[in-house]
Amino acid sequence: MGSKTTSSTTGPATPATGDETTTTAIRIAGASKVYGSGQNALVALDGVDLTIAPGRFVSVIGPSGCGKSTLLRMIANLERPDAGEVEIFGASPDAACEAKLIGFVPQSPALLPWLNVLQNVTLPHRVNRAAERKRSRAASASPRSVPDLEQLLDDVGLKDAMHKLPAELSGGMQQRTAIVRALGLQPEVLLMDEPFSALDEFTREALQEQLLDLWDEIATTVVFVTHSVTEAVRLSDTVVVMAPRPGRIVDVVDIDLPRPRSAELLKTPEFHHFEDLIRDRLQAAWRSPELPNAA
Amino acid sequence: MMTALDTFRRATATTTPATALASDGTAPTAAIASPADAATPRPRRLPTVLRPSRWLPLTVTLVALGLLWQLGAETMPYLLPPLADIGETLAGNPGFYLANAWVTLQESLLGLAIAFVASSILAIAISEVPMVKRAVMPIAVVLNVTPLVAIAPALVVAFGFGPEPKLIVTAIICFFPILINVSVGLRSVPAAVLQFYRTIKASRLELLWNIRIPNALPYLFAALKIVFPLSIVGAVVAEMFAPGASEGLGTTISLASSNNKLPVIYASIFILALMGSALLGLVTAVERRVLHWHDTHSGEQK
Ligand SMILES: Nc1ncnc2c1ncn2[C@@H]1O[C@H](COP(=O)(O)OP(=O)(O)OP(=O)(O)O)[C@@H](O)[C@H]1O
Ligand SMILES: [Mg+2]
């Protein structure tokens, strides 16, 4: 809760106060999504409610097929809810994208193979230039300075790789590039879909640490989809537990651990307590999949 | 592999244990290769093209083919001219062949250029507007399966003996491969890339210019490798059906065949083959430079 102590001094994400619509970063109300129809209809999301305050780091965890990616895509305006609504700083996801308020990190790095690392992270700034004006008009945003992308790449250890092509990078370096590409936009909302799932344990932990450092500086709202309980507990202020068939939220757990969360913290009993808690909830969700027990 | 390595270790262990130790860390292939090195001191590395393993197979094939040809020429003089005769014709009148080759080359390149511009524009239209695809694609397919040799005479009748029918035939033959490949290339951007750029609302034009077109380049070059040699086929076929036309290697061939001048026919064919190979080489070289980022090259160069 009151755990995030070091952030929100430098970042632009601090919302303009006084305007009541801006006190939530993301508001999802009764959102449903059905794929297919008739016999083949698959309820990917069923009446999902979720409210996320600005500057929070929220992880979404749940068994495969429970609709985590669908939920994320819905916030990113890549999918429209069949029922219910999604708001980002009081505006529609479409308007949020229009103003470049959203930074999206897909599961695969999705870099352009003909551009080097630096070009890959600068291209997003060269498209949709009208966004700047819309952004300053958008409910939340304070004007942002053009970020120093080279500095950002340096921060994540990509200084020497700046002029290399994606094919010349390791998987971890590619994923870091994708994160810088999204963070370089200084998004109000950073959406990440299992960004580290293809990486080995060691790289994964290093990137988690870098992500936390960056987040401390940029202080943006994060929705982070993951399969890993440890990862969710380490990174998040709040962990959202989902269950499948139909896809729904079964639990919301606040992680009351101090920040910064070093590697040491992972060994403490407090940390294990939260890990066990989440694991229990996940198992409960898995055992009684057909019971729509609360959101 | 293990046995070879073991033998090597035993062999080297007594004399130079240090080498044996070092070889543990290196790849087994290196270890296996080493004894041979010891026997015959390794010659300085030749450039790849000069290594016998590179040029010898082709040379052997060429010599064999040449011998077969000569044999054929002696037994069936009315089917195959002796190689010496072909060489003589070429050497005797190089200006004539060069001038005609130049005409054919111009026709094929111009026809190709027309096809390139038209099919690229159409490919973009098809990829951006599904309606255009539905309207145009069936016709393009029909055009592609229509035998070109059947169209050529009709075009000659319609457009006379000038350059027009040649350009049209060449353009038609080159059109379809470019159209198909480029429109596939424009549409095969990975979904995750599109998703990212959609979340920042890149416009269609921005997507097209920054992502779709570069993504289509490997597909375009694949098409060009087919189409550059094909353009010569188109030009020659059209020339052969317009025998009144004064120039071009196709014309030269059809005139020579009515006069039974076998060496001239084969000399022309030889030049056409050379021209096609040169164009193919040119495209490949340009592709290497433009698509240095593309995987197929790291694969090919292995
Ligand atoms: N485009 C689509 N068309 C049809 N069904 C889909 C589509 N996208 C997702 N689904 C279905 O919706 C359900 C939820 O999918 P989603 O990708 O959101 O799951 P997930 O929680 O992200 O799973 P994972 O952890 O495996 O990534 C799945 O059953 C999936 O089969
Ligand atoms: Mg998913």
Automatic annotation (TrEMBL), chain A:
This protein's source sits in the domain of life called: Bacteria
**Residues annotated as domain ABC transporter:** 26-269
An example Gene Ontology molecular-function term? ATP binding
| Keyword list, A-Z | ATP-binding, Nucleotide-binding, Transport
Q: Which PROSITE patterns match?
A: ABC_TRANSPORTER_2 (PS50893)
Instruction: Enumerate the residue ranges of region (Disordered).
Output: 1-22
In its keyword annotation, does this UniProt entry include ATP-binding?
Answer: yes
Record keywords: Chloroplast included? no
Which Gene3D superfamilies does the UniProt record give? Answer: P-loop containing nucleotide triphosphate hydrolases
Q: Which InterPro entries match?
A: AAA+_ATPase, ABC_transporter-like_ATP-bd, ABC_transporter_ATP-bind, P-loop_NTPase
- SUPFAM superfamilies assigned to the protein according to its UniProt record, in alphabetical order: P-loop containing nucleoside triphosphate hydrolases (SSF52540)
Q: By what name is this protein known?
A: ABC transporter ATP-binding protein
Q: Which organism is it from?
A: Agromyces albus
What lineage is on file?
Bacteria, Bacillati, Actinomycetota, Actinomycetes, Micrococcales
